[in-house]
Amino acid sequence: MYAIETKSLTKYYGKSRGIVDADLTVKEGEIFGFIGPNGAGKSTMIRTLLNFIFPTGGSAKVLGMDVIKETKEIKKQVGYLPGEVDYYDDMSCGELLRYSERFYNKDCTENINELAELFELDLKKKIHTLSLGNKKKVAIIQALLHSPKLLILDEPTGGLDPLMQMRFFSRLQEENKKGTTIFFSSHILSEVQKLCHRVAIIREGRILKVENMEDLRNNQFRKVRINFTGEVPDLNIQGIINSHQENHTLHLFFKGDVNELVKSLGCHQLDGLWIEEPTLEEVFMHYYEKEEYR
């Protein structure tokens, strides 16, 4: 059974695009990244999966259950962390979390106290006195307190300082080791790179690519920088995806046989040659800019 499964899932807001024909499967027990810039459709996908908004077309299942027909049961087993949080200002953190606890018909006191200590949250403080970062801590605890089978995180680290981000990522890995599936939406690729097993790239509401994280990062893409002693020649080498020139230096984004590249450069006078692994951001931009995916 998949933790998340969508088929041709589509959502339009009138004539405005939300998501279009989204086919996606997330395996039970994996940490799955969902990446794209703001406005790409990430939050629309999440809100549709949680039945906060109705799809225009297609279908979706969460934990094997239909997101529309069985939404009540789904919500019992899912922890959700929204990108922006807004609470009842006059409640204390502890009152809010105990209120949330009652939706799950279980005693979550131990979890709440443990998480409050981990994230250094004073449960006695009123919501209206909290900083953005402390409100995000409340939201994190609220998502985790009932030990959900599936965590859905929408831009989860906004407002957290680096120490709390590190603790948050560590806690997510602990939850995943216990069997929790994590669906992690972000436009910060370094976050996704730290955690995720697989990743989907979304652009303008359409899923462009689903890749294993290691394949995406190490899919024979290389950054190449070549310093020539004289004028930069025109290189006709199979595997050059794009290139740009700066004075006597040629920068390549390359996917091909490195031996053929070096052999072809042998007839030119070089002042230096660097070949290195690209960052995830650079690989992401390659997929995002390809004309065939527009």
How are the elements arranged and paired?
Blueprint: E1 2-13, E2 16-27, E3 31-35, H1 42-49, E4 57-62, E5 65-66, H2 71-77, E6 78-81, H3 93-101, H4 109-118, H5 132-144, E7 150-154, H6 162-177, E8 181-186, H7 189-195, E9 198-203, E10 206-212, H8 213-218, E11 221-228, E12 240-246, E13 249-255, H9 258-265, E14 270-276, H10 280-289
Parallel strand pairs: 3-8, 3-9, 6-7, 7-8
Antiparallel strand pairs: 1-2, 1-4, 4-5, 9-10, 11-13, 11-14, 12-13
Q: What is shown here, in short?
A:
With 294 residues, this protein is α/β, with parallel strands linked by helices. The chain has helices spanning 42-49, 71-77, 93-101, 109-118, 132-144, 162-177, 189-195, 213-218, 258-265, 280-289; strands spanning 2-13, 16-27, 31-35, 57-62, 65-66, 78-81, 150-154, 181-186, 198-203, 206-212, 221-228, 240-246, 249-255, 270-276.
Description:
This protein is of the alpha/beta class. The chain folds into two domains: 2-216, Rossmann fold, CATH 3.40.50.300; 220-293, Alpha-Beta Plaits. The chain has helices at residues 42-49, 71-77, 93-101, 109-118, 132-144, 162-177, 189-195, 213-218, 258-265, 280-289, and strands spanning 2-13, 16-27, 31-35, 57-62, 65-66, 78-81, 150-154, 181-186, 198-203, 206-212, 221-228, 240-246, 249-255, 270-276. Strands 6-7-8-3-9-10 form a six-stranded mixed sheet, sandwiched between helices. The model has no long low-confidence stretch (mean pLDDT 90).
